[in-house]
Every structure is written in structure tokens, then in C-alpha cells.
């Protein structure tokens, strides 16, 4: 037994040395991580600053540029003030800018980064198949995509509006506004419930029709994301909503540390 003691001691010494070496490597890795975070944050923010600045200088109408520059400068200073924590905020801000593009700045970036926009939620061919009519290319304007009807230039474009989050609040507001309109019409004409706003079964978590001008509009929600569709028959709008709602992607919400469409995941 005594003859084995040096060997046992050697093995124990090796194990101890390996453990110490591993701990040193882990400590070195942990020490390196903070220095990497600012670099990653800087990259995300550099993308955001460069792309938005280019959009302002090349696409925004001259009359709006001064205000846009000032707003962007304030945003840039705020993001720079939080240092390495700015990475996710910059990524979220760039995604929001791409999704709510009103100037035609980011179509290529949306495709390259795989970011959904109102014009990518449904394809033009899908829309044409359901609506049974030819459409022009979708035009992205804020959170809405408009598809013109080339065969009838006087007809209002088909519209898809997407609320990537806070859709529940938007739909509650739309339902309340329709109820108010119905009361007003009823008081003035004696005609009640022009468009009742009753729930449409089998479309997301909540869906109902309201009026937008003289046309019916379908609002539908899945989780906390919602869409509005305008420009087709009742049956066509319902079919398109059933196609679109499951496709809405969940994006991380930096403030909550969860997806911005959490409700949809829970269902």
C-alpha cells in the first residue's frame, strides 16, 4: 500500500493542477467578456446610426430633415450614454425603423436581416389568389402595406396594417370607436349597429369587423400582435387573416427580457 502512495499523490496533484488551470481559463474568459460587450454593442449601434443617418440624408423630404436629424441626434446621445447595454436597444431600434419605414429606405436591409414588414407578411401571389384580382407591388408606408389595383386605378389600394405589439390595446380602441360611431348613427338616423363589431370565430384570439370609410375592415389579433385588412369581401379578409396571423414572428423585447408577442406563445 505504501508503494502506491506516491502514485496516488501524483494523480491528486495532477487533478488539482488541471482544476486550477481550468479555473484560471474560466476566470480569464469572464474577464474578457466585459471588454467584448462594448464592441458588440458598438457594432449594433454603428449599423443603426449609419443606416438611419443615410435614410434621413437621402430619402426624407428636405422639409422634414431638420426635425428628423434632431430626433435622431437625441436618440443617438441617449444610446451612447448607456454604453455596452445599448446593443439590444440599438438592434430593437433598427428593427422598428425597418418595420415602420415610411420613406422606402430599408427594403434591402429587411430582406438581408430576415425582418418582417407589412409587405412581407403575405406574398402578392397569395393576395391575388384570394382576392381573385391582379395587384401592383406592395408599397411600404409605416406599419401599412398598400397594394394598388392596376385594372381599377380609382379603387383604393388593398391595405394590410400590422401592429407588432400592443395589438390588444389597438383592437380595444378600434372596437370602442366603432361602438361610438354606431351610437352616433343610431341617434341621427335611427339605424342601429351598422357594423356591430361582434367577434369573428376561428380567427386568432380575437377578430371583428369595423368600418373604414365606406368599406368593412377586419381587425384580428394573435397574442399581442394585431393586423387590419381592408379591400376585400368578408370571406376574403377572413381567409387572409387566417394565413397572416400565425406568421407574425416573435421578437425579443429588451425591456422585458421576453418576446414582444408573449401572448401568442402561451396559446
How would you explain this protein's 3D organization?
There is one protein chain. This protein folds into two domains: 2-113, no CATH class; 124-252, no CATH class. The strands form two sheets. A six-stranded antiparallel beta sheet has the order 1-2-3-6-5-4, sandwiched between helices. Residues 1-41 and 254-267 have low confidence and may be disordered. It is α+β, with helices and mostly antiparallel strands and 267 residues long. It has helices at 5-58, 62-81, 86-99, 107-113, 124-131, 167-189, 234-244, 262-265; strands spanning 139-141, 144-147, 158-163, 206-212, 215-222, 225-230, 252-253, 258-259. It has eight helices and eight strands, in the order αααααβββαβββαββα. It starts with a helix and ends with a helix. It is globular.
What's the gyration radius in Å? 27 Å
Give me the count of strands.
Answer: 8
- Major beta sheet summary: 6 strands, antiparallel
Which runs of at least 5 residues are low in confidence (pLDDT < 50)? 1-41, 254-267
Strand content bin:
5-15%
**Integer tally of domains:** 2
Order of helices and strands: HHHHHEEEHEEEHEEH
Broad shape: globular
Condensed summary:
By secondary structure, this protein is an alpha+beta fold.
Key features?
267 residues; 2 domains; two-stranded antiparallel ribbon; 8 strands; 53% helix; disordered N terminus; disordered C terminus
Describe the SSE topology.
Blueprint lengths: L4 H54 L3 H20 L4 H14 L7 H7 L10 H8 L7 E3 L2 E4 L10 E6 L3 H23 L16 E7 L2 E8 L2 E6 L3 H11 L7 E2 L4 E2 L2 H4 L2
Antiparallel strand pairs: 1-2, 2-3, 3-6, 4-5, 5-6, 7-8
Amino acid at each position: 500500500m505504501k508503494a502506491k502512495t506516491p502514485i496516488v499523490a501524483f494523480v491528486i496533484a495532477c487533478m488539482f493542477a488541471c482544476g486550477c488551470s481550468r479555473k484560471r481559463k474560466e476566470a480569464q474568459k469572464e474577464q474578457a467578456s466585459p471588454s467584448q460587450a462594448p464592441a458588440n454593442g458598438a457594432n449594433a449601434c454603428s449599423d443603426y446610426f449609419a443606416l438611419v443617418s443615410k435614410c434621413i440624408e437621402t430619402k426624407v423630404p428636405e422639409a422634414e430633415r431638420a426635425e428628423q436629424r434632431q430626433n435622431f441626434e437625441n436618440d443617438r446621445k441617449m444610446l451612447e450614454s448607456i454604453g455596452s447595454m445599448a446593443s439590444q436597444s440599438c438592434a430593437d431600434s433598427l428593427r422598428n425603423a425597418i418595420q415602420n419605414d415610411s420613406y422606402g429606405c430599408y427594403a434591402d436591409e429587411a430582406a438581408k436581416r430576415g425582418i418582417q414588414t407589412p409587405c412581407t407578411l403575405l406574398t402578392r401571389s397569395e393576395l391575388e389568389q384570394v382576392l381573385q384580382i391582379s395587384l401592383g407591388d406592395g408599397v411600404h408606408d409605416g406599419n401599412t402595406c398598400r397594394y394598388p389595383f392596376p385594372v381599377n386605378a380609382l379603387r383604393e389600394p388593398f391595405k394590410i396594417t400590422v401592429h407588432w405589439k400592443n395589438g390588444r390595446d389597438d383592437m380595444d380602441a378600434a372596437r370602442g370607436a366603432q361602438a361610438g360611431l354606431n351610437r352616433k348613427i343610431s341617434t341621427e338616423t335611427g339605424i342601429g349597429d351598422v357594423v356591430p363589431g361582434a367577434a369573428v370565430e376561428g380567427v386568432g384570439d380575437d377578430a371583428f369587423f369595423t368600418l373604414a370609410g365606406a368599406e368593412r375592415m377586419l381587425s384580428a389579433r394573435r397574442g399581442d400582435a394585431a393586423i387590419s385588412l381592408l379591400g376585400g369581401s368578408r370571406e376574403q379578409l377572413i381567409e387572409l387573416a387566417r394565413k397572416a396571423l400565425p406568421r407574425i414572428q416573435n421578437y425579443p423585447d429588451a425591456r422585458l427580457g421576453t418576446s414582444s408577442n408573449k401572448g401568442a406563445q402561451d396559446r
